[in-house]
Amino acid sequence: MNLRLIGGEMQVWSDLDGRHGPGPVRGPVLAPLLGTASGRTLVLGPLDPTLLDAVPVDEVTVLVRGIPDAEALAVRLAARPGVTVLCGSPEKLATEPAYDTVIALDGLERLGSTEGADLSWADALGLLVAALRPGGRLLLAAENHLGLHRLVALPAEVTDTDWAGAGEYDPDRPAGLDRLRARLAAAGLFVTDTHAAWPTAIAPTALLRPRLLANPEVIGFLQATLGRACEPLGEVLTDPGRLAARALRHGAATELAPAWILQAERIAPAPGPSGSPAVAQAPAAGGAALPDALISVDDGRHDVVNGPGGALVLCRPDGGTQAVPTGRTLEDLLIVAALRRELPTVRELLRRWQAGGYAGVPADRIVATRGRELAPLAPAGPPPAALRRLAARLLDAGLGHLWPSPADPAELALTLAALAGRVEPVAPAGDEPGRPDALAYRELLMSRDRLSRELAEAREREAWYERTLAACEGELRRARGMLALLSGTPTARAGKLFLAGARRARRTAGAAVRRVLPRE
Amino acid sequence: MHHANHYYGHSHVLARYCGLDDRTPQRIRGYLQHGWNIGDGMAADHEFLPGVPLFVWSERTRRRAWSLGRRQTYVVGAPWAYLLAMEPEPEPAQPRDGTIWYPFHGWEGQHVVGEHDRLIAEIKATETGPVTVCLYWQEYRSARVREQYERAGFRVICHGYRGGRWDSLDPDFLRRQLAEQRRHRRVASNRLCTAVFYATLAGCEPAVYGDPMRLAGEVPIWGGQPRIRRQWAELHGAEVDPVAAREVAVAELGADRLLPPAVLRRLFGWPDPQPSSRPADTDADLTEEIR
Lengths: 520, 291
Known about the structure:
By secondary structure, chain A is an alpha/beta fold.
């Protein structure tokens, strides 16, 4: 049996089954990070067991705190004789020999056991550093409590795993990437690589280096990437994709990333007499082996690497490569032109999109390159669906007032189609996606306000129609009366005129009498 | 929504452009600007319903309207510009001669205060070719005013009645106006006004000179004539740079913003034409044609 209880283990606890908290850290995009492990490797914290297959070394130790998790892992990893599963509190690791690689992709918050020591963030980091041999490498994730996933989150549900953590109020925990790096440096680590993780710390699908996130040349590609990554966030305060796009525009995407994954080397003591750390020894090659970006999409993983001459190259899962398109998304260009009320530009952009081969690719997934070409970043669906998606996104962004259309996705889609010069109707189809962020409260509030306004306007219109109808009915009555007077034989007409005159005279006389005589 | 949408046959011209019946055009789902002005594009005495869009001629007017609190205001361009797009000047152009002169006029219920004799003297002193004076229907009906101009040796015409409340509508008003303007080399008025812009777009060289007169009880809430003279100084005088004037006319009439028929139909809430009567969707760049 490759399972060893080291003390402090939790008898009936599981992090992996997801019933007591958010479940393990997961996502195939993390596999290449695990693939950088070398030498004796320690993996701590809840991690999707399938990811352990990506650790390419024989001698692997996995530490979890719950016995059910440890047992399940032991069974799963039984075929790998070099793998040891430890169960218990991390402070018990002190008795283990040092490791060449330590991996904590869930961060430090879910390492401690109810039965073990009350570990602060610094305590836990200290344990990890102590478990690392000098020159060894640490792979550490840290959730950003100012991350976009938290900015858009509804109040978090308290789970079984939150028995004593101070969370974002923890004064000991470094808040922000710079402070995190500084703390690692103070702990004797040299940070060799950083990736920002999106859309959540627990299930990232896109890992991007800060220097890539700050590259304005490829902002369209980045907005499309983060927009897609943020789509599955569920019920939120506001559309996270739009917020991510805004963060990219402001060069703040790294600061607002939901998590950071850092690689750091434990600095070996310098051979000199002073014994001061030899900073110059780092960095090592481990970080450089990773791409600038690892992006998990439906068809597999797309990597962004630095090609010859520093050009960014996108490597597709099918083995093909292409230059990362430079420029902004078509949607961004459309919005800017619409905000400036440059309608001819708006029409030209829409026409170029809908008349070309990418009419079915959503406008927020197309980069309009400087060479006026369109570079799709997603497969094409039905063009009407792409138009309706654009319409819904424009309305949800609060930009409905820019368009000569009722603020309704179907109506606006028809107007966009007309502006694009499409002749066929854009009727809703069953295979269309719903509104991308219908679960966002900001958009719900906007819809409520819009509906209230439209109701008030409809009531005023109804009153106006009522007045107009009354006026028209009056005119019709008069016209019919005139017609009746003028129809028939000359004798009949004369008779009618006489009678009408007599009636009028009687009415006039009656009114005069009533005016003159008192009512009594 | 408003009977003014049908003034001057505007809705008729647009219906024709949209491939629809231009004898009995549909109601426009909104308020259509029906004359050039320096306010929000709409007539001051109109009742507006909230939520009903305003369709203005130019981007400048839209910005002004927006700044005045008007929302749901969209630029569609002037019906005149659509008419010119549908009926470009034939090649080769017919020879043009003389000046078509529009004395400032009041509208229904308004009266102009000013000396027609003095204006006539100024026209005679300025114009070298034959002069056609075009009067508003109110003045044209006044034999006294009409004869004043006729005595001066001018040809006196009237483009017609602009239409009432869904009554006495004139689908051919603009067409007649265009035919008349295309006979003249110059257009002039004593105030910068819609007709001057129309004729400039139709190829006349514009001029604005003479006593601007005034309306009885005129309240210049948007700055009046002094503002017009300041803002469009380059269009005032007996001789005006025709290239610069054309640029201004294109912008003020929204001739650079004309929309394809399908878009106009969407905006106005009009149906698509029947396939048999559907004209070629003039989605070609009308802006270029106009220029």
